[in-house]
Amino acid sequence: MKTIITGDRPTGRLHLGHYFGSVQNRVKMQYDYDTYILIADVQALTDNFENPQKVRENVHELALDYLAAGIDPTHSHIYIQSCIPEVAELTVYFSNLVTVSRLYRNPTTKHEVGQKTELFGSDGESITYGFLGYPVSQAADITALDGDYVPVGEDQVPHIEQTREIVRKFNTIYGETFKEPEAVLSETPRIKGLDGNDKMGKSLGNAIYLADTEEEVSKKVMSAVTDPSKIKKDDPANPDICMVYYYHKLLNNPNLDTICKECKAGSRGCVACKKELIKVMMEFLKPIQERRKYYEEHPEEVERILQEGTASARERTKEVMKRVRKNMKLDYFE
Ligand code: ATP
Ligand code: MG
Hints:
Number of strands: 5
Strand content: 5-15%
CATH class of the largest domain: Alpha Beta
Strand order of the largest sheet: 1-2-3
Distance between the termini: 30 Å
Low-confidence stretches: none
Number of helices: 15
CATH topology of the largest domain: Rossmann fold
Helix content: 55-70%
Bound molecules: adenosine-5'-triphosphate, magnesium ion
Number of domains: 2
CATH superfamily of the largest domain: HUPs
Structural class: mainly alpha
Radius of gyration: 22 Å
């Protein structure tokens, strides 16, 4: 079986963007691959180092969201990054194989630094060594488990390319040690926000969380952006520029053709259309929220799943690190 490794930073709850952008894909793949799902707390600390409590709390929230979304612990290993110290060790070895200028050129890092002006200054002059280097530690996460495939969103592609470069360099210098992992892009690359933003995101304030109540969902859907040319309830409109229609489509509403026709003919009001979307969305979220409730009520089970997942990841990493130390001539007492 080939191995896939993916994960998220524990900086908040999972939203529909995460679900359709990556989690759904992992749920499908877990039956055909040896699946490792990483809760990247070390990486989360690179820009939340002043707020360890936030990271700590979200490790638990993320585990609950994964299990709720259908990650099956009998098929996937969910593990905590900081509990695999060998990955930190490998990051140090890898850091010799990457230039600082190459890290600065990474478009995803650049973009993120530009968004974090409070932390890193208006032109990124206060960027930390840790943040600049997180793609290196990501390379260590993947290779420490001998990962074959990394299912990701498009923003992660530069990081996987960086990983492949490190692997090639490592193998050239120290001998064949790692395989080059491949990025697998999900079919739905980027989920838009109901507010018309081309991305749903936590910090954009437009996220619908998997754990949102009907009240929260209703509030967000009712304020969704529709065709601005439609003023009156019976004006015809263009569903292709309507975020409500976009979500009906995303959630596979069986009524989609009718919605499209009625919207174009002016026989469908936006309020009714939004109410229908709330219903469809809550139906979609229902099984997810039921599973979440089960695990919220059984914290000892979640703890056991995390412990077992982490033990399994560490076991595997230790084997890989024996190879690394041998090839790097660091196997002093073996
Ligand atoms: P923030 O606003 O703090 O950056 P976020 O909502 O973008 O939060 P992240 O934790 O940055 O969430 O996302 C983790 C990963 O989830 C991203 O690398 C990306 O691949 C995927 N992802 C996030 N938002 C979306 C989205 N709207 N559509 C598809 N994938 C997404
Ligand atoms: Mg983001």
